[in-house]
Every structure is written in C-alpha cells, then in structure tokens.
Design a protein that fits this description.
Order of helices and strands of chain B: EHEHEHEEHEEHEHEHEHEHHH
Order of helices and strands of chain A: EEEHEHEHE
Oligomer: heterodimer
Number of strands of chain B: 11
Number of strands of chain A: 6
Strand order of the largest sheet of chain A: 3-2-1-4-5-6
CATH class of chain A: Alpha Beta
Structural class of chain B: alpha/beta
Number of domains of chain B: 2
Chain lengths: ~110, ~280
Amino acid sequence: MKICVTSKGAGADSAVEQRFGRSPFFVFVDSESGESKAVENPLVNESGGVGPRAVQLISGEGADVIITGQLGGNATAALQASGMKVFAYSGTGTVSEAVAQYKEGGLRQLI
Amino acid sequence: MKIVVASGKGGTGKSTVAANLAYSLIELQSVTLVDCDVEVPNLHLFFNPEPAIKEVFTIIPKIDSDLCTLCGDCGRFCRYGALTVLKDRVLVFEKMCHACGGCMIVCPEKAISECNYAVGRVEDSNPLPGLRLISGFLKEGEVLAPRVIKDAKAAAEGDGLIIIDSSPGIACPVIEAMDEADFCILVTESTPFGLHDLDLAVGVTKSLGLKAGIIINRSDGSDEDVRNYCRKMDLPVLLTIPFSREIASVQNRGDLISEKLPGWKEQFAGVYKECLELCGVDE
C-alpha cells in the first residue's frame, strides 16, 4: 500500500506539513517495504485551485492513503471522488512517525 | 460618453450618485444607467422597473467519457484547478473555470467540448421616460462577477450617455466596470477609511489611464484631508454632499434627492457638465 504524507521536506524524516494543496513536498511511503520517495509540489506558489490539482498529482502517483493536516472544500470534493482514504495528523512529528501512528490505527479518518 | 462611478470603500454613496446623476439628466437627454455592482445590485430600488430578463452564461468544459483516455493533460494544464483527472473519471469544478478554452486545445483526444453554465442574469427596463436601467445580477454562490458585468455593459453598448455603477473595492469586478469608460467619478467620505480606499481606487484609474473626479459624500464640513489629497493628486472635487438628516431621510425612503429636494438636480447636471469639460467634449 502506498501512503502519501504532506511534508515540509524531501524525506521521511521531515516534519509533516499541515496544509494539503500547498504542502512543499509529498512523500510517498510504501507500507510493506518502508521505502519512500519525495515529490516536490509544483503548486506551492500558485494563486488558486491548488487543492484539486494536488489530488490529480497524488492520484497519478498511485497513492491509496493520504495523511495531512487540513483540507479545503474543493480538495475534499476531489478526494471523495478519488477513492483514496484521507487521515488527519495534527502533531509536530515526522513523516515516519505519522505513518507509524496511522498503522497503529491512531489517526482520525477524514475521508 | 461613458461615466463609471466607483469608490474603493463600500457604502460611500456610489449608487446614490449614479441614480441621482442619471435622474438629473433625463429631461435633457436619454440616459442608460448600468448597475454593475452585480453581487448586490440595488439601483432598481430607486426606480421600480418592470424588466425584461436575459440569462448570463459562461462556458465550462464537458468531457466525452467515451473519447477520454484519462491522460491527465487537461488537469495539468488548467491553472485554476477546474479539472481533476482521477483513475476512473474527470471531475469538473464549474466555479473554478475561467472559460479560457485551453483544456479543449490541449486534449489530444478532442474529448472536451463547450457547454453553457448560467452564472447570472441581466435585467433591462425603461422605468422613466428617457431612462434605461440595465442591472446585472450574479447568481448566489457564483464567483464570475466580471462575466455578468460584461453582459450588462454589452447590453448598453451603442447608447449615447451611459452611467455605470461599479462595486466597491479595486479587484476584477471594478476593473471590468471601469474598462473602456471615458471618465470615472470616485465617491468618498471625509473619514480616514474613505481617504485610504480612495487612494487605492485612484491608483486603479491611473493604471487604466482613466480621467477621474471626486465627489465627497456625507461631508461633516471637515474635509481638509480629502481636499488636500485631491489637490496633491490634481483631482477635481466635482461635488460635496453634506451629512444632513434631510438628505438621509429622502435616501432612506428609496427616493432621489435630485427629485425630492430643490437644487440637487441642477447640482448633478453641473457635475455632468464638468465631466464633459474634463474629457474635452463639447456639449
């Protein structure tokens, strides 16, 4: 299973970013192998419409689950249609810590 | 001649000025008043019109799912986020679309066509002899105010004297209302807030190369700051409307001071004359 975490930096040891569409990076973690890959978000400085565009980007990478802080209305509508599951992480920890908490069933499901 | 009434700050009296200016001129010539404050149009409250109604449409993309291969090109192209390509379908966010048509061009399968999407309406009426009132109404929940403004102004196109009432602020709807006007009347009030926002609006008229004059409304007699500003910026003060209970009570009944109170019709006619002079137009 592929888990996408919104992240302030380019690795699994970076802090989780609370914003969804304007997250600086999306870190994709393979839950079985533990391997991770970071994708820089090209939408960070766009004026608007970043939510639905980020959903297409993440869906295109083949994610099954997303861990992020908060979602806007348009992102929510796109994610609901996408089939991906979304979980909220409100802590200050790293991508790896958020994934570990998700695996333990400790995160609240948003979508 | 096309005169746009704007302000920067809300509630300074744009609609009051536009309606009274129009009313004061209809005995002299035909006037078309265009309400471009499409989120909250209210000029019709002065005139009780019986309008003809025309819907305003924008264009949004329609995806032919038989042709679409879900390649994602349209979604990557659309900078407004109006299209999201998922694994099994394409989502269209109608309100995000700016009708640029780019998605239709980039689609390699020609799977995208145009379809109409209603965003508002234009009401057209002749409430008084010599007066045509055109009002733009943006649908609740819609965001494309400039689209409705464009249609309202287009309906007036070709008429001799057009007075356009804009929305407050200095963003897209105001710029659309000001576009191709010959003169801009900026209505302000003698408060720090009025002056601050007047300066922003003056900046817009300068950027657009639009000649402007000022009307000070609800003046308490202490207008030095606004007048000093106008002198500094070389902007003529066309009229000062005092802060008076008599004027407020006429206005609050939905009446026009140029109709109900002596002298104001002549004062507003004088404002128009000065606008013509400032534009270098002979009567």
